[in-house]
Structures are given as C-alpha cells and as structure tokens.
C-alpha cells in the first residue's frame, strides 16, 4: 500500500474549471485514485476517485462518512468565530452532513414528502411557476437565462413546496442568495457573518411558518414534514427547521445549474436540439442524459472514518476523499461514446444524484421539474445561440453564473 501523495490534478486551474473532461479521462486511465491540491480554505487537498465502479463502491462504503469531528481531535479544526456560529450550527444539523444513525433518523422525514405520488401532485403548481418565470423573459433579444429565469424559478419552486407564500418569494430569494455567497469558495469573514445573520433569520422565518401551519393544518409538503415530526419524537424542532432550510438549498442550486448546463450543451449540439424540438426524444431520457453529460454536482466529499486501504492507497483517518460523480458519468466502461450528447441514450445509471445513503432525496422532484422546463424550452425556443457565458469557480459544483442566450 502506498500513502504517497503526488498531486495529479488541481481542481481550481482555469483550464480545468472550463473543461474538466479531458483531465477526468486521463485520471480514469492513469490514476484511478490520486491527490488533488487546492489553495481554497477548508480544502487543503483530497484524494480524488475517478472511475464509475470505484465512485459507486466508495459512496456505499461505511468507512467513508461525513462526521469528521467524531474522528479527529478539536485542535485539528480552525476555531469558528462567534459571529459565524448560527450558520455552522444550522448546517451541522443537515442530514447531508450526518452519518448513521442520525442520518437515517433525519432522512425518514423526507420519505413521505418526496414520494413520487406526492411529487406528481405538484405538477400543476410547478407548471404555473414555470409559465410565470417565462413571462418575465424578454420576447426578443438576448437575456441571461441564469439570473432572469433558472435561478429565481428554482428558488420559487422549492419555496412554494415549503409552503412559503408567493408574496414572500422575493424575500426568500434574497436570503438564499446571501447565504449561498457565504458558503462559496471565495468568501470573506464578513460574508460568512452576513450569511450567518441571514441563516438565523431564515430559521426564524420557518419557525413562524411552522407555527402558523400547525394552527391551520394543510396537506402539503410543509404539512407532511410537520406531521412526520409531530407523529414521533425522533426529530427536534431545530432539526425540523434546519431540514426546511436544507430542502431550500439542496433543491434550488443544482436544479438551476442543470438548466444552464443543459442549455449550454443543447446549444453546442444543434442536431440533438432539433430532435428534441421535433418530439423524437423522451423527456425522462433527455433529463437523464443532460444530468450525465454535464453534472451539476461534480464531486461527493467524504472523510475516512478510519485508516482505509482503497485502490492501493493508504487513506489516513480524517483525510478527505472526493468521489468524482462528473468523471464517473463519462466512464466509457459504463457509457458508450461518453463524450457524445445522445438524448436517446438508454443507459441511465448516471451518478449525478450520488449513490449510497446520501443519494439525492429530491431526485424525483428534480427530474419532473427538469422534464417540464426542457419541454417548454423546446416549444418556445426555435434555436439557442450563446452570446456570453461565465463559469462558476467551484470545486463541488459545475455550472454557469451567467449564460446570455438569444433564442429568437
Ligand atoms: C438537478 C437537481 C439535483 C441534483 C443534480 C442533486 C444532486 C444531489 C447529490 C449529488 C446529492 C448527494 C450529495 C452527497 O452524497 O454528498 C444530493 C443530496 C440531496 N439532495 Fe439533491 N440534487 C438535485 C435536486 C434536489 C432537490 C430538488 C431537492 C429537494 C427539494 C434535493 C434534496 C436533496 C437532499 C435533502 C439531499 C441530502 C440527502 C442525504 O444526505 O441523505 N435535491 N443531491
């Protein structure tokens, strides 16, 4: 076994941020596991796993988990400033950052609310929100699909789902944006403090909403969450409120990035877009392929909860491992001709929603939402021309902060 850490790639290199796929290809062939170095705070470096079979297996291996604080002494961590505590306290309660048994306890509340039947019942409401968002888009001339459409729409859909009244949607959008900035890679202590204040406000907002809903019960998403909480004492009130915020966050960013990445891919593959417009494709397969081709979440991070020998490497307890979802989704061992966008691809075993116990809880909602959005796009936009695009600088996600298109 070798614990030798030789850097095999740098995830913040501009060339990699622009197009990571040639690097993934090299890594899958030459370094199925290798050390990634980054100057970003909190990501000193990590082991990166690039092949589909290993990513899938690693995410199901309980020697890798999320609660690194359980296995490292307190002095291994940068102390948290007082002004930043509300943000970190909230995030620490998210199921996303929990291992068993707490993870299973928290995840249980998500089961009834994300059941396919429940999500299907939301279709008319999602359709109305999509129509309202399209009404804001200029009929002629270029516009930024991210700021003018996909970002507000994605926040509004999850806000609506969480029982946030329509008149409060702009308020929630503002909070979400500020908290997102505070969680960003490039962030200042001031930004984290501002995000922390907003996190406290958002939790208080959901507290009031839950109170109001208890007084006037309704059989919607928030009602189901409250019922799941009140039916047993397996969830604290703080955990219930933190879960509301998690759904808001987990639900909006990836959905918005998928719209941007999908449009970008379709603009570069006009023959495939023509097939989509001609109705020669199936919505379910289209979304699966767009998720595979340019996955919104590129890496699922875990920590070694013990010393682990993995793929010939000795991973020390507490070290970070990045499982490459985006790389796995281009693995030729699973996907024939993986760099080709094929909207009729029958192989749908992509890992864009992750794998193992943390597999995306909202995947059925995400799929339905994206199917409906791309159906409307195909109906409305005779063509897609990219005027300008700007990539998000991130290790975790891949997407665009700006995508100006002309579709007339
Ligand atoms: C295109 C859209 C989406 C993508 C690509 C996506 C992707 C993912 C991925 C990769 C994970 C696993 C992260 C990890 O293992 O580290 C995850 C977890 C999660 N997602 Fe999504 N997601 C999407 C939409 C949504 C939506 C709409 C919701 C809910 C409203 C949602 C709720 C969650 C939750 C609650 C988790 C945590 C699950 C757990 O820890 O057990 N996601 N998502």
Automatic annotation (TrEMBL):
Pfam families: p450. The keyword Membrane does not apply. One of its GO terms (molecular function) is heme binding. Keywords: Heme, Iron, Metal-binding, Monooxygenase, Oxidoreductase. Belongs to the cytochrome P450 family. Cytochromes P450 are a group of heme-thiolate monooxygenases. They oxidize a variety of structurally unrelated compounds, including steroids, fatty acids, and xenobiotics. This is Cytochrome P450. It comes from Falsiroseomonas stagni DSM 19981.
């Amino acid at each position: 076994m070798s614990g030798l850490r030789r850097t095999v790639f740098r995830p913040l290199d501009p060339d990699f941020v622009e197009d990571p796929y040639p690097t993934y290809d090299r890594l899958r062939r030459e370094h199925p596991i290798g050390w990634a170095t980054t100057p970003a705070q909190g990501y000193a470096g990590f082991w990166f796993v690039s092949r589909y079979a290993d990513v899938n297996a690693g995410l199901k291996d309980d020697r890798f988990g999320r609660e690194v604080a359980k296995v490292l002494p307190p002095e291994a961590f940068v102390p948290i400033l007082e002004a930043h505590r509300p943000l970190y306290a909230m995030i620490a309660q998210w199921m996303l950052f929990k291992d068993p048994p707490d993870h299973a306890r928290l995840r249980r509340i998500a089961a009834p609310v994300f059941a396919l039947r429940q999500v299907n019942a939301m279709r008319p409401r999602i359709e109305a929100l999509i129509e309202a968002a399209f009404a804001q888009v200029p009929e002629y001339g270029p516009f930024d699909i991210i700021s003018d459409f996909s970002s507000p729409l994605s926040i509004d859909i999850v806000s609506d789902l969480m029982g946030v009244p329509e008149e409060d949607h702009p308020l929630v959008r503002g909070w979400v944006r500020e908290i997102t900035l505070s969680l960003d890679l490039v962030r200042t202590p001031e930004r984290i403090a501002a995000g922390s204040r907003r996190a406290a406000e958002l939790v208080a907002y959901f507290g009031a909403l839950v109170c109001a809903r208890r007084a006037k019960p309704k059989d919607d998403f928030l009602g189901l969450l409250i019922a799941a909480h009140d039916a047993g004492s397996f969830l604290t009130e703080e955990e219930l409120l933190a879960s509301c915020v998690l759904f808001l966050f987990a639900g909006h960013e990836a959905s918005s990035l998928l719209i941007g990445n999908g449009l970008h891919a379709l603009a570069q593959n006009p023959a495939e877009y023509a097939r989509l417009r001609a109705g020669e494709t199936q919505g379910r397969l289209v979304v699966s392929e767009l998720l595979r081709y340019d996955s919104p979440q590129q890496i699922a991070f875990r920590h070694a909860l013990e010393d682990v020998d993995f793929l010939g490497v000795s991973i020390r307890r507490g070290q970070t491992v990045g499982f490459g979802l985006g790389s796995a989704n281009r693995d030729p061992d699973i996907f024939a001709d993986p760099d080709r966008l094929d909207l009729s691809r029958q192989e749908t075993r992509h890992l864009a929603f992750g794998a193992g116990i943390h597999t995306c809880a909202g995947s059925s909602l995400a799929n339905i939402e994206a199917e409906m959005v791309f159906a409307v796009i195909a109906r409305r936009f005779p063509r897609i021309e990219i005027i300008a695009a700007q990539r998000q600088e991130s290790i975790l996600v891949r997407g665009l902060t700006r995508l100006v298109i002309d579709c007339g």
